[in-house]
Amino acid sequence: MRLTIITAALVLAAGMSAAETVLPADVAYGEDGAVEMSLTGKAGDAAEGAIIMSSKGRGNCISCHAVTALNDAPFHGEVGPMLDGIGDVRSEAEIRGIVADAKMTFEESLMPSFYKTTGYIRPGNAYTGKAPTEELAPLLSAQDIEDVVAFLLTLKDS
Amino acid sequence: MNFKALTAIALVAGLSAPLAMAGGADDDNMVINGDTDMTTKAAAAAHLDGALDEVISGWHFRSDETQQLQLDDFDNPGMIFVDKAMDTWNAAEGTEGKACADCHDDPADSMAGVRATYPKWNEAAGEVRTLQMQVNDCRVNQMGAEAWKYDAGTAVDMEAMISVQSRGMPMNVAIDGGAADTWAKGKELYYTRTGQLELSCANCHEDNYGNYIRADHLSQGQTNGFPAYRLKNAKLNGVHSRFKGCVRDTRAETYSPGSAEFIALELYVASRGNGLAVEGPSVRN
């Protein structure tokens, strides 16, 4: 919880590179759902973020969102808002909070919580339709989230 | 927020290529075999107050090519299975040496209107029965034959043959009396956000019908077209199998075809389609 974050912050502040990964249950969401601190302390890789957003087996974000910069991947959905220019509109912390758990920002959001492992009704083992045999992993890893955030921050109109 | 509006802005802004733009149900008319006019859009039943104003057949959300296949029985690949079920209807089976036809004669008379009212409360049995459950009750108790596996080929083919006898009649499923409890249970399931994606039936089929989710054009998830011939697996598919696929896609542990949960859900979803013409067998991608 808080302590982990503070420790991680101190570690970061001390300029050490091997920061601890913040676990899903320990993410510190602000009142508006934003997450100030990096989940890994490692800079996100925007190019990798683009791949994660387009891949069916990973973020599959474009199943709901249109993103012009990802037009190489076919079939963008219409369930969520289009994300062009999101880097102008939202801060890094806000975007991190939304990608990690959109329900902290938008109450009852349709958007899946990508960095969460508990609180589900009848969770399954991925897309098998069967009960999970192991503890659930979050839909995306901490570094995946940071990569996606880095990519979204590149989406600027100006 | 109005996402359709956002999408429209995106269009104006000149976005092109891989965006799957479409929006909503189309305005085509469904006439089967050139003579049967089908009600594919209808005012929503009173119990949908606040949820939907209009109910729309899934047919309106499919491509022109797929739609076309359902307009003529010679083109509809599902009709082959209907013919097969007609043979089954006339074949004696079980310890009593009886066929369906021995008790019910010509299905064109005896089965007309039946599909439109199922699932249905059975007072004597004290349960809500789907059409497949009723057929199995006949098999076991009247014919001394074995029950068919739920949603297996023979059962779904027979359901399609019985559906054809009601084609064009409005769905008219009762939700009161003995059915009320089961209906309420089905409604709860419809609005429960399941799985690691935490999506309910309503999230996709009430909040987002008409929108694309990746390559899929979301319909209202109505059941009036079932059994549905799917080009994807080249056979007739039952309602519960469709439910199972949708629940699996929320990364959830699914219920089984024939389970109490899916029986309740079928009743509830069927009641959402009250007023729409029975279409089975429909054709879907």
TrEMBL record, chain A:
InterPro entries: Cyt_c-like_dom, Cyt_c-like_dom_sf, Thiosulf_SoxX. Gene3D superfamilies: Cytochrome c-like domain (1.10.760.10). GO terms for molecular function: electron transfer activity; heme binding; metal ion binding. Residues 44-156 form the Cytochrome c domain. Residues 1-18 form the signal peptide. Keywords: Heme, Iron, Metal-binding, Signal. It comes from the Bacteria. PROSITE patterns: CYTC. NCBIfam families: thiosulf_SoxX. This is Cytochrome c.
Automatic annotation (TrEMBL), chain B:
GO terms for molecular function: electron transfer activity; heme binding; metal ion binding; oxidoreductase activity, acting on a sulfur group of donors, cytochrome as acceptor; protein heterodimerization activity; thiosulfate-cyanide sulfurtransferase activity. Binds 2 heme groups per subunit. Its cofactor is heme; heme c. Keywords: Electron transport, Heme, Iron, Metal-binding, Oxidoreductase, Periplasm, Signal, Transferase, Transport. Heme c 2 binds at residues 201, 204-205, 246. The active site is at residue 246. The keyword Electron transport applies. Residues 85-171, 185-278 form the Cytochrome c domain. It comes from the Bacteria. It is found in: Periplasm. Gene3D superfamilies: Cytochrome c-like domain. Its EC number is 2.8.5.2. Its main location: periplasm. Substrate binds at residue 242. InterPro entries: Cyt_c-like_dom, Cyt_c-like_dom_sf, SoxA. Heme c 1 binds at residues 100, 103-104, 138. Residues 1-22 form the signal peptide. GO terms for cellular component: cytochrome complex; periplasmic space. GO terms for biological process: sulfur oxidation. It catalyses: S-sulfanyl-L-cysteinyl-[SoxY protein] + thiosulfate + 2 Fe(III)-[cytochrome c] = S-(2-sulfodisulfanyl)-L-cysteinyl-[SoxY protein] + 2 Fe(II)-[cytochrome c] + 2 H(+); L-cysteinyl-[SoxY protein] + thiosulfate + 2 Fe(III)-[cytochrome c] = S-sulfosulfanyl-L-cysteinyl-[SoxY protein] + 2 Fe(II)-[cytochrome c] + 2 H(+). The keyword Electron transport applies. Belongs to the SoxA family. Heterodimer of SoxA and SoxX. This is SoxAX cytochrome complex subunit A.
